[in-house]
Amino acid sequence: MSTFDAAPTALIVHAHPEPHSFSTAQMATAAQALRDAGYRVDVLDLYSDAWAPTLGREEFGPVEGHFKPQAEQQRAVKDGTLDAVVKAHLDRLLAADLLVLSFPLWWFSLPAILKGWVDRVFVMGAVFGGEYGLFGDAALAGKRAMLLFTTGGSGESFQPGGALGAMDDFLFHIHRGMLEFVGYQVLSPVVTHAPARMTDQERAAALDTVQESIALAAAEARTAVH
Ligand SMILES: Cc1cc2nc3c(=O)[nH]c(=O)nc-3n(C[C@H](O)[C@H](O)[C@H](O)COP(=O)(O)O)c2cc1C
């Protein structure tokens, strides 16, 4: 049974250190487009919340001997001893029908603060593993996820054969290795290329395009296979 039947919830996890960046404006535009499409929108702004991205031993209280992060995650889920901040983020993740990861592309990937959010919040035993399997058997199966990001490189440079290579190739580790791995059905990414080289007029037009793309994605998420 899809959770999209009632008013759906979108969780946007945003990672940009500058509140006046194009990425942050893009995130705000996407949030409004989702609200306009009938979503309840929850925004996690990792930099402004000073999110600590490192998964380490200290998160689990006293760990004797050899530290195995995923074993500790599973034990903490079972014992109800997950770190309070991680638990709060996990609850917001589990409550969301649609997850949007919002970021500037850094080294063909997520900024470290966002990668660390995945490390700590995609908890083994709670979103996959333990009583859950992987992919279609993972805890987030039936939900949707998508990437919303900006690049330094131009659109042409990311075409197959372009200087930076085909985007689908290097997004694989996020789409397959993180999102589908925990059960999500992945929607097409919304990307703005090279906002730093845009005029104010071009930036306004690019935000209009983001608004339209997110409206389409919101509709696709509601009608995607249940
Ligand atoms: C650490 C770092 C790594 C970056 N790596 C890439 C990259 O791999 N590919 C790319 O196209 N742009 C890269 N960029 C450029 C950013 O993606 C670009 O400046 C940003 O998306 C523009 O959006 P903003 O103005 O909202 O920051 C990188 C920037 C930084 C700071």
UniProtKB/TrEMBL annotation:
A GO term for molecular function: NAD(P)H dehydrogenase (quinone) activity
Keywords: Oxidoreductase
Name of this protein: NAD(P)H dehydrogenase
Pfam entry (one): Flavodoxin_2
Entry GO CC: cytosol
Family of this protein: Belongs to the NAD(P)H dehydrogenase (quinone) family.
Domain Flavodoxin-like fold: start-end pairs: 10-212
SUPFAM superfamilies reported for this sequence: Flavoproteins
Domain of life: Bacteria
Alphabetized InterPro entries for the sequence: Flavodoxin_fold, Flavoprotein-like_sf, NAD(P)H_dehydrogenase_qn
